[in-house]
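In response to a reviewer's request, we include the raw inputs and outputs for one of the modeled complexes. The two entities were modeled together in a single run.
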Amino acid sequence: MAATKASKEQKYDRQLRLWGDHGQEALENAHVCLINASASGTEILKNLVLPGIGAFTIVDGHKVSGEDVGNNIGRVSNVTSLCYTIVISNPCLHNRAQAATELLQELNSDVSGNFVEESPDKLLDNDPEFFHRFSLVIGVQLPEGTCLRLGSVLWNANVPFLVCRTYGLTGYMRLVVKEHTVVESHPDNALEDLRLDQPFAELKSHIQSYDLEGMEKKDHIHTPWIIIVAKYLEKWFSDHNFQLPKNYKEKEAFRQLIRQGILTKENGTPEDEENFEEAIKNVNTALNPTKISSIVEDIFNEEQCNDITAQTPAFWVLARAVREFVQNEGGGNLPLRGSIPDMIADSEKFINLQNVYREKAMQDASVVSKHVESLLQSVGKTSESISEQDIKLFCKNAAFLRVVRCRSLAEEYGAETVNKDEITSSMDGADGEMVLYLMLRSVDRFYQQHSRYPGVYDYQVEEDISRLKLCVHSLLQEYGLNVNVKDDYIHELYVWPHVQLVIKIITRQFVPFNNTFIYNAMSQTSATFQL
Amino acid sequence: MVQLVGSLRKELADSVSDCNVLVVGAGGIGCELLKNLVLTGFKNIEVIDLDTIDVSNLNRQFLFQKKHVGKSKAQVAKESVLQFCPTANIKAYHDSIMNPDYNVEFFRNFMLVMNALDNRAARNHVNRMCLAADIPLIESGTAGYLGQVTVIKKGLTECYECQPKPTQKTFPGCTIRNTPSEPIHCIVWAKYLFNQLFGEEDADQEVSPDTADPELSYTEARATASDQDGDIKRVSTKDWARSTGYDSVKLFNKLFKDDIQYLLTMDKLWKKRKAPLPLDWLELQKLGTILALPVDFFLSGTSLKDQHVLGVAGYSQLFSRSVETLRSMLADKGDGAELVWDKDDPAAMDFVTAAANLRMHIFSMNMKSRFDIKSMAGNIIPAIATTNAVIAGLIVLEALKILSGDVEQCRTIFLNKQPNPRKKLLVPCALDPPSANCYVCASKPEVTVKLNVNKTLVLALQDKILKEKFGMVAPDVQIEDGKGTILISSEEGETEANNSKFLSDFGIRNGSRLQVDDFLQDYTLLVNVIHCEELEKDVEFEVVGDAPDKAPTPPSSQEEQKNFANGNKDSAEPSTSSNAPAEQDDVLIVDSDEEPSSSTMDVSTESGGLKRKLHDAETGEASAKRQRLDQATADDDDDIIALD
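The model returned the following structure tokens for the whole complex.
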């Protein structure tokens, strides 16, 4: 067992550096369902099997036929799936689901592959609960009707649903999830959580243990910059009515104050004290007042946060517990994150300082943990249902919590509920990605009416174009959209970023898009819309 | 199989199936690219890669499976592709593209060259070869979720070297040998130590105390040198180690006790610094198992073994174990054999982890986990299949534009981690015209170099300036002194005698001009020499008008450098084959965690973000692009060069 773990560590090294071991764990616990092992479908699955999802199930009732080969290859553009090509070029394999499963399995023996030789419609008729078991369902090239039916089943079961469609050089992805909560959102510009503006008791006494004036030079040049800033901030506070340096001018004055603290050599020139330089450099970010972001405030004010029941997901129980902490022990602040950046200091001083933050963070987390426990008790659940590990992770990321909610497919497709504003306002540029959205939806209608895609047969091209135009017009009319769609939008298909998104959903790290992504390979651009 | 005429115009479909293309690199991007090419209908493909397959490739390089580990990437990639597209005509080379066999004539065989590389040296070289052969080049790179594709066409666009890349970070030899102050110094030292003990000895990679430290006064250095330096110094580290039979305890005590005690005698060094604390093997073992436990044992939760930081005693034992393993690996290879450091070789990685951490401890630094040291020592750029798939798809689309004769339509395309404020995940920008001052693609490339003609050896001119800095493979140098004196010849044996002479010995002085030719790259560069006595400490030469100050935003903090690590080194694995080029030993100058936990993210990304926004507003496009370009290439060749 240990050996497999080590070999996994080696195999997945490059990605562990992106999403960490708990991200990998989430991936390995995931069971993804792919409906239709088409070119784009298998490409998506390939890119999930390689990094090692736990299991996949392919649902596909299609037989491999010669016509299938012709149709698909003909329409498939430069990026198709290797597996798919093998599947359709191998006459011994008759069922797409089985063939694709076997080939995908070969890519990574850690992944368990399953298949169901059945059309999604049949499954929806006979056993709609079949789909409840998955962490995520990916539907590729599904007809509109099937999409809506499946969409509503998954919506009610709160299973994320990713609708993918590729056509010519364009691609479309729609994420349908009632609620997706993110603990580790990996923000780009996160500030450290240092609390220098309102040091907690342990930090205060730690700062006091330093005496910059009285210490030896050796210690002076190895004092962590956090201590330096804190020391001079005390001075600053006493002169400035306990107000932080706010604007550029004040911050500059504060920097000057620190600069004056640099030791001087016998000849009067300043010593080379890198830690002081570091302190000066960090003034800007270290002095940001500690406060809770409006996004996190909003989460605290959500209904789910107020009404905790036995069914409430862990995220909301944790959010509520943190809210209790903020309102009580935290004195208005989130639990401390507990990490400090690397800095110039000798190890002893650094580790001592690190421990001050770490221990406070552990204390805060254990207070939150008590809140979790009593919340769970109040709804008749045991405290084990949320692990200490999860509580710690949640506290550490409390400042970055995110909740993504998508509209349902029914809302997007309904004539009453369609998001007209988003469509109309995005139609300003005549060649924008929104046009492609409308085109793809029209092609869908075409398929619904004719059971095939337009332009499949050379001899029908002219007729197909006018048929497709009709579809576009009826779509626009139905939604009461007064927009102009140019005629020259029939192209090729392209596949890809689905997997990036799937990983975001499964690992619950990073923030997925909300909710529609359109790729335009003609201009190599892409856009996201909220539909 | 059905042709793509349905989606590609007939003429385009024809040229796709008729043309010859070259794919340089069969790694992360290369695998996806090969698949895309054959499925688009490309029939004649040549692929070259000098690497062999490693386990850590398997999470994304889907043409390879476990059973292929150790085999040639190019060869296996070819075989796997032929399995699903037997009609393709693929030629595979298990070789370096910098090998002189691949000359301009070779490059002229292709309609199009596509780079799927992971290091700057090879990118520079292919750039020049394509300029010389006038063949369009598609350049690409990925790092984690980020990626980039661009097109280079002689005379029409910027070449790969038009924009100065941030210069490579070098560490003075005395910092490495005497006064390390950051973990990276200890990691570099440990890698040098590996080579000194088990690999190819390199005079630039000394690890013993340096008595020529400029911080020591002349007399002091002399005194210590004559007092204690006597016999030991004359024997190379390797010979000494061999004479002890690679006794790990003796090695330990020499490196972490005796050498440190010797450093302590240079008391001038420790007046302003915290003095190092020597370690003693026996004493450490007496402290026993408590110190062998991970420091963060109780905090660690479920995190993986590699991410723990052990105690000093733990690292002393790891040191001993890894020396033992490496000793027998070396013995198995037979007489005169050498080991090549490879971050994916467990024993080699254990050795560097242990030695670096012991040294960090001695010099009062916080020790680091094997996971972190691996990313610093091995220049690891995180990599996943999806980003590579996206980028490979974009490469093919650019290729189709080139084949349709629409080079003007080509773009540089950036792949973002998150949709930008204009909701775009993929951002195309127009290609810039060539830079008139480029020392590679200008019509008469010229450059000015500041150096001390009395102190610069001809060999240094060849290796450090012409090869390393200006990316030449086999330079010939002629002095424009009216006589056409040949200073360096690429013919073996012709000018070797010049190597150990100074430039001034050949009459080179302030204002001298050197004509440098690289026949392989079909590249001529005129070098103007400026004599300078006062170069910065540890700087051997300076290129005028180059330098990082011209680069848009030079990294100024460790955190920024971390961002800069988000570059385009896709498959960061070093070559496991023997003819590894020098840059495979790169050390990435990043601070620590590659893993982007929220706590390691820093506001310094703001500068990048801001520029990107500027770009989005379609103002300052060029600067935004440059910023990103530099970012994208900053990582991949931060060779550490010890300067004595």
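As requested, we also summarize the result in words. Chain B touches chain A through 89 residues (CB under 8 Å). Residues 446-544 of chain B form a domain with the Structural Genomics Hypothetical 15.5 Kd Protein In mrcA-pckA Intergenic Region; Chain A fold (CATH 3.10.290.20).
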